[in-house]
Structure formats: C-alpha cells, structure tokens
Design goal:
- By secondary structure, the chain is of the alpha+beta class.
- It is built from 1 helix and 4 strands, in the order E-E-E-E-H.
- The protein has a 4-stranded antiparallel beta sheet with strand order 1-2-3-4.
- The longest helix has 12 residues.
- It is flat and about 50 Å long.
- 1% of the residues are buried.
C-alpha cells in the first residue's frame, strides 16, 4: 500500500499576512495531478484536478472572473 502524500502549501508573495487579519490563499501543487487551495484563516481546503486548475488560471488571466463595478 502506497502512502498518500500530504499537501505542502505555500502562500503567494503578494500576500500581506497580518496577525490581526490572517487571510491569505495558500496553494499546494506537490501531489501529482492535484492542486489544493486553502484559506489560511479557516483552514478549509478545496481540491482541483491539474486540468481544472490550469483552465481556471487561463480564464483568470483572460479576465473571465473580473467583477464589474
């Protein structure tokens, strides 16, 4: 039986962590085929396939998720 590797999360360099307001998004890409995103304040994690993550990033770069004022 093979052990399932644990996610190794990293925080963006753009995150300005503040102990009074500890909200940062953390991402783990160390497990082959999976990407996990975690909220540093709550610890809640959402998992994506590598394909889903790649498609999300492509859409974000194209502005698909931009909000109108």
């Amino acid at each position: 039986m093979t052990a399932v590797p644990e996610f190794e999360f990293r925080t963006s360099n753009a995150c300005k962590y503040n102990n009074d307001d500890p909200r940062c998004v953390e991402v783990a890409t160390n497990v082959p085929g999976k990407v996990a995103v975690r909220n540093s304040a709550t610890g809640r994690t959402v998992e994506f396939t590598a394909v889903e993550w790649t498609e999300f990033l492509a859409g974000a770069k194209l502005g698909e998720f931009d909000l109108s004022a």
